[in-house]
Amino acid sequence: MATPLASVTVLAAHAARVPARDPAFLPRLFWLSLALVLLWPLGVACEFKFWLLWAPENRQASADFLRSFWPLALQPEFLDLVLRETWRTVAMATAGVTLALLLSVPLALAASRVLSLSALSGRMARGPAWVRWTVRSALVVLRSIPELIWALVFVRVVGLGPTAGVLAIALTYAGMLGKVYAEILESGENHPAQTLMRNGSGRLQAFVYALLPTHAAELASYTVYRWECAVRSSVVLGFVGAGGLGQQLDNSMKMFNGGEVATLLLVFIALVALADRVSAWLRKALA
Fold first, then answer.
1. How many Cα atoms within 13 Å fall on the side-chain side of residue 229?
2. Distances (CA, A) of 199 to 6, 121, 146, 205, 238
3. Distance between CA atoms of 244 and 251, rounded to whole angstroms?
4. Within a 13 Å sphere around the CA of 195, how many CA atoms are in the beta-carbon half?
5. Where are the domains of the chain?
6. Cα 281–chain centre separation
7. Per-residue CA distances from 286 to 157, 179, 212, 220, 281 (Å)
8. If 193 and its partner were Cys, which of 47, 150, 210, 275 is the partner (CB 3.0–4.6 Å)?
9. Strand, coil or helix: what is 161?
10. DSSP at 207
């Protein structure tokens, strides 16, 4: 049994071996300095001048804008309008994401290598490989065009209103969802799916009985996150005439009505918080 004196001696020897400075300090300093050197030309190219925020006239303008947020606009007729536009915004985001799901799920299954029967033996056959490449290219095209551009196109086709917003969200988010779904399916354990396909099951059966139960929580969480993003996108889409809370926010800002702007922003925050809670509940339920 060690004596107290021996324990003190061991602790003293251990303390003597502890370096006085973090050994990773110099590498961290080097990489931080390198990052700053690389980022500086990017800041110059985009003319990023953060010190302008502290200019007296800019600080005064910011303070005046924030002061206009109070008092909040709580008139009954305005709150009734906000309620109707909130429902329209949620409906637009939900319908857009639903259409995106209908497009993205088959595209993700076609783009996923783990569900390729010809890839079970190693190298994927030329035909399925070309199909997979074509589908992935289509997903790149869909998500490369911002929903704002799609909205401008559809406003000319179907006119002003939420329909243009729904279609814009559907196309852009189909590309995003399809890409991430395919990567989620390929990133996890795929041995059960391969076993089913080797024993005669089809790709859809392998997806439903092997891949979906394993990745359900992650897929659901990402889908809810994209729905949350669709709600936020409706703000921008409203500025081009797609309707919803975004269009009302545009009208309030043009009228310099800070109280209405603040009320609408609080509603957006509440919607995002609701989406966050739904995502947490789904992950817990599917875990």
1. 17
2. 66, 13, 43, 11, 52
3. 11
4. 7
5. 22-61, 76-286
6. 18
7. 41, 22, 11, 9, 9
8. 210
9. coil
10. I
CATH of segment(s) 76-286: 1.10.3720.10
pTM of the model: 0.75
Cβ neighbours of residue 287 closer than 8 Å, sequence gap 6 or more: 217
**Inter-CA distances, 12 with 3, 8, 64, 252, Å:** 14, 6, 61, 69
Are 164 and 151 within 8 A, CB to CB? yes
State pLDDT tens for residues 42-79: 777 877 777 777 878 878 877 877 888 888 888 888 88
Question: What pLDDT is recorded for position 21?
Answer: 63
- My answer on whether omega of the bond before 71 falls inside 30° of 0, hence cis, is yes
| pLDDT above 80: residue 11 | no
Between CA 113 and CA 74 the distance in angstroms is 54
